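Long-time lurker, finally posting.

We've been working with Farnesyl diphosphate synthase (Globicatella sulfidifaciens DSM 15739) and I want a structural starting point before designing mutants. I don't trust myself to interpret raw outputs, so I'm hoping someone here can both generate the structure tokens and explain anything notable. Sequence follows.
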Amino acid sequence: MEILKLKTITEFFEKGLEQHIRYKTTPIELMEPMTYSLLNGGKRVRPVMLLWVLAIQSMDAVKAGLNTANALEAIHTYSLIHDDLPAMDNDDYRRGMLTNHKKFDEATAILAGDALLTDAFGMIADDDQLKPEQKVKLISLLSQAAGSVGMVAGQVFDIQAENKTITHEQLANIHFLKTGKLFLFAVQAAAIIANLTASERQLLETFATHFGRAFQIHNDIMDEIGTPTETGKKTQADSELHKATYPALLTLEGAKEALNSDLEKARSALNELTETTRKPYDSLEVFLQFVTLEQ
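Top reply, 14 upvotes:
Generated this for you. Predicted structure of Farnesyl diphosphate synthase:
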């Protein structure tokens, strides 16, 4: 495997994810909606970020992190299935395809999401490449990132902020919980699996925190100015739902300035990591390209 090649790492992840899900003895009635959403593409930013940090260390570390990357993507996919439901964002398309509840039905989509969420923790618990103490740390961190003090809490606050005026600090907190914590988990998991130093982990967390915020700001901006072809789903949906977004709070130009500020802070963390460790952490800048607006 070529180290630090986006296509190579992504293909390695895709192959591992498909092999894992295909070997399960899940009933076909549930497997079909699960794989429909899990295997329908996307940038795979979270799991590939996890594997990329491990690739900087060694190929053995990448192999040891594959099941954790699978678990992270399973939880992200469950969140998208549930986010799209009529009771939430009521979306018809995701990544250019019908959303799960439109392809199947609402009850099936809920259960497919439930299964992906629950199975994710088993992916880590059953991983024979990890030490018991690593498994416990990873499961604990992932539950915090995804649950009632992480992503789910952010989704609740996001719904509560509809049709309301909130502060910049409140909006940043919503998006840190809703979006940022899973990016943070990606680098924290890599640090646990590869036994990185505390200073290395801290700088990775700084990078992931600013990247996560930039990712959400970019998402908000593209909902305003993007096309369905670019985003893979209906645009201007946030404004129709009167959601709290960066363009709504800061204006479009203000949101672009905030995006560039977080991108620079993320880049600075990578530069410091590269200088202090003499490892090619600056290669992680490829992720910043995902959230950089075209001029």
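Before you design anything, note these points.
The chain has a mean pLDDT of 93.
The chain has one domain: 6-290.
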